[in-house]
Backbone:
């Protein structure tokens, strides 16, 4: 019997595959950080899945574990301090957590790629953007410098950077925020990944530029049939792009549902709170339902339902019983004991 | 770029003037009459003394004397000693020796400082890291004089016993070519090696935490490339600056090392000239050192622009 970790050659997940099988399946993922203050339980049993061509928006306030989950999928967490005591991340049926570091490096960047929030700090300041994009082809595809540079120009044109040929040797600081994010995107789609994770790709940008970047991502995704995970805490931007939404709170998924359903009728008090805190033109003057209280302390999580200290629907058993991820219907779940009442729309 | 260099050189003029005026004032405030010192124990012929005082403008106010001196400097003339020898002639050969010493020290500093720093950074938190950090502390706290004599004893006396009288590292003079500079160069570089080790470690550790390193990992780049290209290329920037600025410090700091190892460089000459009240030589050497500082800093700034594309000089 071989050791638990496998080598790069034997079981890399198959390319392509049949259309509608799950591309990525995160199941009961736990991530914790060993810190001086104690064990920070950042992710506590997250499950979500993604099919080719599908886009999943992951939503939740700051600190809810969205980025840590994504970093676990990419395999870019520093371990230690991070560790993954439980769960699986299946990519085309193969559990990434069981692969060797070499095998994971084969997947990272080539088949699962990631875009980060702040492109200025995420790009290397001392190399030209062309160098940084073409590096993907040189290192992973063994291309010559010149051919790789040509590819870089093509990619820059594909993400619609004006005068790409002239600008390929410029450095990141010479571009505007929106253009820099386009360069990040060009770099991430260089090798036609099957999954693209975008971690708040527009947070650092102007509103008008945000819309353009979202549009570009949606367009690239349609063209290539890749699965897109879009992390954001802005419910406003996801409606047009996402197929389904997973809402995270305190390191767990509290609700997942197709986009339409969730906007029409949220199935968890936290989702409801998020939706009602988006300002809407037709409700001008009405008081916003902002979620009261503070996000939970990950070092000392509330008992029972982690949301109970802030929840307007709370009943006595919420304080003691952890709600399971109840099935509302085939493609919809809610981690609330009282999801029926929430769906009926009667909140206190 | 060219215009920037010219502007910097022009800006250097007041620095040069200020520094030389200062040293001029200090040196000439030293007690004792140089002409009298020239004559030794006997009292000189008053006519000759008067003539010499006239020739060296010793009767003029300090600022006028300085005026004569500095106008000479701008014509490439460092003046003459009281024994009527060209100062530049005295300095030239010794300057070469000190430059050799300083360059040896700089090379050793770069190899050991950067090497140990990288090693510590890549093993941070482990035993190697702590050991390297502890040894830099020792290196900083032990005076040059002590390291110098200890190494002389170890390499000159003890090692020779082991090798049966064969000298591997010469420990005095410069008669054996480059190898003669190795031990003195190491002693001269000692504290700088310690600082550079720490700077290298900090710089690399900091850059390894940077967002763009995470991006490089997410791109699937091999670890060797992530560290060796992405992080190191950024981490090098402050190190090059430190090394460049240190060249001047090493040349100025050569006084002690040169006397321990009996190396005939400008450090030793400076020491002797102060002793013998050869003001023109003292001022000449300091002027040269100031020039080296200024040029080294200019080169560092230019290198900065080469290494970091965010910096542009117009
Ligand atoms: N290296 C680390 N060491 C300790 N704790 C960490 C570390 N990285 C993340 N955490 C903690 O994990 C929790 C989840 O962080 P994460 O970055 O996933 O939040 P997020 O949902 O992406 O929030 P944001 O919207 O602010 O990006 C946070 O409370 C954070 O403090
Ligand atoms: S389980 Fe209870 S506390 Fe938690 S969200 Fe539902 S109603 Fe609120
Ligand atoms: Mg985040």
Residues:
């Amino acid at each position: 019997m071989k050791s638990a970790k496998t080598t790069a050659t034997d079981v890399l997940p198959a390319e392509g595959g049949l259309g509608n099988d799950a591309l990525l399946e995160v199941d009961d993922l736990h991530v914790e950080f060993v810190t001086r203050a104690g064990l920070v339980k950042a992710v506590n049993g997250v499950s979500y899945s993604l099919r080719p061509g599908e886009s999943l928006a992951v939503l939740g306030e700051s600190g809810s574990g969205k980025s840590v989950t994504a970093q676990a999928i990419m395999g870019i967490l520093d371990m230690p301090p991070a560790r993954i005591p439980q769960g699986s991340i299946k990519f085309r049926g193969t559990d990434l957590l069981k692969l060797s570091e070499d095998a994971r490096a084969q997947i990272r960047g080539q088949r699962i790629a990631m875009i980060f929030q702040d492109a200025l700090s995420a790009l290397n300041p001392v190399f030209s953007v062309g160098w940084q994009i073409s590096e993907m082809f040189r290192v992973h595809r063994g291309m010559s410098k010149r051919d790789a540079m040509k590819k870089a120009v093509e990619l820059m044109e594909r993400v619609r950077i004006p005068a790409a040929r002239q600008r390929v040797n410029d450095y990141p600081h010479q571009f505007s925020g929106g253009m820099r994010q386009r360069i990040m995107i060009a770099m991430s789609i260089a090798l036609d990944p099957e999954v693209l994770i975008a971690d708040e790709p527009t947070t650092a940008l102007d509103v008008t530029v945000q819309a353009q970047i979202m549009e570009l991502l949606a367009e690239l995704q349609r063209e290539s049939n890749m699965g897109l995970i879009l992390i954001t805490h802005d419910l406003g931007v996801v409606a047009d792009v996402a197929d389904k939404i997973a809402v995270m709170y305190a390191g767990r998924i509290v609700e997942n549902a197709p986009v339409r359903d969730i906007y029409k009728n949220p199935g968890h008090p936290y989702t409801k709170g998020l939706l009602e805190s988006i300002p809407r033109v037709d409700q001008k003057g009405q008081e916003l339902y902002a979620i009261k209280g503070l996000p939970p302390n990950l070092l000392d999580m509330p008992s029972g339902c982690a949301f109970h200290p802030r929840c307007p629907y709370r009943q006595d058993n919420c304080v003691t019983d952890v709600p399971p991820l109840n099935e509302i219907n085939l493609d919809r779940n809610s981690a609330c004991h009282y999801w029926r009442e929430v769906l009926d729309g009667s909140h206190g | 770029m060219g215009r920037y260099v010219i502007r910097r050189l022009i800006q250097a003029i007041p620095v040069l003037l200020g520094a030389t005026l200062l040293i001029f004032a200090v040196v000439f405030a030293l007690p004792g009459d140089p002409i009298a010192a020239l004559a030794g124990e006997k009292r000189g012929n008053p006519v000759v003394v008067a003539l010499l005082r006239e020739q060296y403008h010793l009767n003029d106010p300090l600022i006028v004397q300085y005026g004569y001196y500095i106008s000479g400097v701008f014509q490439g003339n460092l003046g003459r000693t009281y024994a009527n020898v060209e100062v530049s002639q005295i300095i030239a050969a010794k300057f070469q020796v000190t430059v050799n010493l300083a360059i040896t020290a700089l090379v050793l500093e770069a190899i050991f400082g950067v090497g140990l720093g990288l090693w510590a950074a890549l093993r941070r938190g482990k035993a190697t890291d702590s050991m390297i950090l502890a040894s830099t502390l020792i290196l900083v706290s032990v005076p040059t004089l002590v390291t110098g004599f200890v190494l002389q004893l170890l390499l000159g006396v003890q090692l020779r016993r082991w090798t049966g009288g064969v000298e591997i590292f010469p420990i005095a003079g410069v008669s054996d070519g480059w190898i003669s500079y190795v031990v003195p160069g190491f002693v001269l570089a000692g504290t700088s090696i310690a600082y550079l080790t720490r700077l290298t470690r900090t710089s690399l550790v900091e850059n390894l935490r940077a967002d763009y390193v995470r991006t490089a990992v997410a791109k699937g780049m091999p670890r060797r490339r992530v560290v060796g290209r992405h992080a190191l290329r950024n981490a090098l920037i402050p190190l090059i600056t430190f090394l460049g600025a240190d060249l001047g410090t090493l040349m100025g700091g050569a006084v002690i090392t040169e006397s321990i190892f009996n190396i005939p460089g400008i450090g030793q000459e400076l020491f002797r000239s102060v002793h013998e009240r050869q003001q023109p030589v003292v001022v000449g050497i300091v002027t040269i050192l100031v020039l080296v500082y200024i040029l080294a800093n200019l080169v560092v700034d230019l290198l900065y622009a080469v290494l970091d594309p965010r910096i542009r000089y117009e």
